[in-house]
Amino acid sequence: MAGYSVPKQNVEVEEVIKGSRFITRLVNVDTVDKAKGYLKSLREQEPTATHHCWAYIVGNPQSTTLIGCSDDGEPAGTAGKPMLNVLQHSDVGDLIAVCTRYYGGTKLGTGGLARAYGGGVKLAMEQLDTCEKINKVELVLNVAYECGKDLEHIVAQYDAEILNTEYLEAVEYKMLLPSENRDPLEQQLELRFGDKIQWKFIQ
Is residue 127 predicted with pLDDT exceeding 60? Predict the structure, then answer.
C-alpha cells in the first residue's frame, strides 16, 4: 500500500563543537503551520540561543513541494541547506529539524558550520524511529438495508475502516479509505449496486 515514512517520536541530540553547543531536534509536523508553530514555541522557550536554524519537509518526501529552510543569521548556505539536504536524502516526510546554537566564542568558518549543522541532523536521523503514514479520505455511503452486508464485504477488500453506522431510511456508513483505493472502489460500487447506493467523499 502506498504511503511514506514519518517520525514515530521526537529526537533530540546535542554536540559541543569548539565551544559552541548545537542542539538538534526532530519533530513530526504534518502541516507547514505546525512546523512554524513549533519553531515559534522553541524560540520562546530558548530566547537566549544565538541561532535557531531549521529545515522541514511536509508531506510525501517523494512528491511534496512543501519544503523550506533557514540559516537564521548564519552565513548564507551554511545551515538551512545542509540540514535540508540530509532530510531530502532520508525519505522521511512530515518532519522539521531545528538546530539551536549557543555560540562558544570560536568561529567555525563556512565549511565548519555546514558540517556542524548537517552533521547534527544526520546524527539525529540515525536515532529516529519511523512508521508508515497512509493518506486517507473520508467517505459517506447511503445504501438500502438489503445491501448492507454486501457493502461491508466489498469495502473491506479496499482496506476501508468503518467509523460509524446509522440505521435511518437507508443505512449510512462513514468510513476512512486509503486515497489510492478511491477510484477502484467507486467503480466497484457503481457496478455492484447501481442506483441502490449514494456516496460522497469528504476532503
Answer: yes
Task: Please tell me whether residues 14 and 70 are part of one structural domain.
Answer: yes
Domain encompassing residue 127: 4-132
Counting beta carbons within 10 angstroms of the beta carbon of residue 144, is it exposed (0 to 12), middle (13 to 18) or buried (19 or more)? middle
CA separation for the pair 170, 16 (Å, rounded): 66
* pLDDT beyond 50 at 1: no
Both 117 and 195 in a single domain?
no
Q: Residue 104: phi, psi to the nearest 5? A: -105, 5
pLDDT at 2: 62
CATH number for 27 = 3.30.230.30
Averaged pLDDT of the chain: 91
Closest CA to 170 of 196, 190, 201, 195: 196
- Displacement of CA 155 from its chain's centroid (Å): 26
**Residue pair 181/188 in contact by the 8 Å Cβ criterion:** no
Going by C-beta distance under 8 Å and a sequence separation of 6 or more, which residues neighbour residue 100? 21, 22, 23, 24, 25, 42, 46, 49, 51, 52, 53
